[in-house]
């Protein structure tokens, strides 16, 4: 356990303080995320879960404190970090003017992959037969799956997922959970926020970081 | 450089340091502007060509020269904030913007007022007046952008980027406007050059330029301090300060 | 699952995507163009139809209209990407941000700048532009509109997260457009008088190079603030 902590820390947050609209969301928050961990950020609405994820991804800047990726500040080592990061926000990043296949193709290429079979990947998220459909015509769940499809073709270790289960049916959630477990086993880590209960990833595996709603 | 800067990046230290500097700036500015203005407006000799109307230069020239200097100061501060990620520097830049805009506006108004007796019209598309007008627009852009963001920490960063973009463009704009006006106008209209000025006129002018600079510095410090307090309202040290002030 | 995309491939992937989206969304191409034509048409109605007067103001009118059309069309440059989350993905992709931004600006220029250049000579006919000035008109627009797109994109990137766009955007970027306007219109004037104007073009060209090099960084930094 000790060895694991010292050698495989992927992401560490140091004394993070986040202030939104003159309100302190969290103050001097520190934690480490090691390879093989699945971490759920918990807390009521408005407690700063999304803000924390965005800070971890390097999208938002904390009021104070910093985030390190394998010992390097993510702002200074942005290229290396982005190369190892897969972030999916609650906005899916799917273009409604493009088809499911074009969307996935673009997302994967922009992430740096050049050899992949979009049809095969789309089949894995139950979108077989919808490859040519414009994303704008897909249902909310299918839209979400188009974004999530990237998880099936990636070698990024750090997954930061904001509400990945939104609009996904029960079976889909189970498939995602299996995917997370497999990813953790390969030495990756998953940090996610969700209000849904997970059936397969039990509390013994799942680590929780709790944020409270703070007044003032 | 980095270490030194960083020690003042802490808002509390920046607040205390600016508090110590403020009285010096304020006293010197009052003294210099007082001496320069009284000397220039009351005692300097009358110009043989323009009579007493030339005396407006004791306000116009300091305002015009400081309008540009204030923009430079704002952009440098924004640059420090952007590169070294120091929030206090962003706030300082945001604090300078409205002061710079007012000074630029004063320069424009006094320039136009001076133009009336000199050229017989309130406004001519003279190169200096035109660049001063564009400078005012640049200031107003920074202020408007700052005002549009709800989150003032972000607002200061965004305004800072705009200020830096503006400062790169200022020389280009100035050059193009000068070139444009030389192309479109007979060169008969020229503002008296400083070098032809007698020392009795020059000294009060220089004193006023320095005074205006210090005055801008003093007002910036006041705005900077309230900016820090506003952004750090939830911090313990600000609360303690508020309690201490309230007790007094 | 090796990552094997070169910067050039990433650049063209994004460029192709933006063009593809715009082709499926044709209003974005035609509306600014229509605006450009309308504004130019308004001037003869406002100042009278005398050919001498019109040909005197033609360079300025066409360029001011081009400036406004370019600014209006720019407003949508990052908006859609911002609202659907693709902008975040772009910021987090391993590709260099200035390069991505440049691809987007180039796509935008192809869609709005090029049509503008093509229509401008027709409008110049309506305004009785001097016969010698057509070459200069095309050349200044070809060199100048990319500068407008690049500078304007900075303002757009700064305001993309805000609800109020238009008026604020014009306040931010129109002052920056002044040098391009000055050199472009004087070049066209010079051409009309049979004077050489290659010096003007060289200066606009220098502005293009300068903004090509610097603007993508400013746009990138602005986007990072806007998505914060």
As a percent range, the share of strand residues of chain A is 25-35%
By oligomeric state, this entry counts as heterotrimer
Main sheet summary of chain A: 5 strands, parallel
Question: Residue share in helices of chain A?
Answer: 25-40%
Give the termini distance of chain A in whole angstroms: 39 Å
How are helices and strands ordered from N to C of chain C? HHHHHHHHH
Q: For the residues shown, what is the average pLDDT of chain A?
A: 88
Q: Provide the domain count of chain A.
A: 2
- Estimate the global geometry of chain C from the Cα principal axes: elongated
Provide the gyration radius of chain C in Å.
18 Å
How many structural units, i.e. domains of chain C?
A: 1
> Given the helix and strand composition of chain C, which structural class is it?
mainly alpha
Q: Helix count of chain A, per DSSP? A: 7
Radius of gyration of chain A: 17 Å
Please name the CATH topology of the largest domain in chain A: Rossmann fold
Q: Which segments of chain C are poorly predicted (pLDDT under 50) over 5 or more consecutive residues?
A: none
Number of strand elements of chain A: 9
Write the H/E string of chain A, N to C.
HEEEHEEHEHHHEHEE
Largest sheet of chain C: none
Function (chain B): Required for the export of heme to the periplasm for the biogenesis of c-type cytochromes.
Keywords (chain B): Cell inner membrane, Cell membrane, Cytochrome c-type biogenesis, Membrane, Transmembrane, Transmembrane helix, Transport
Protein name (chain B): Heme exporter protein C
Organism (chain B): Shewanella hanedai
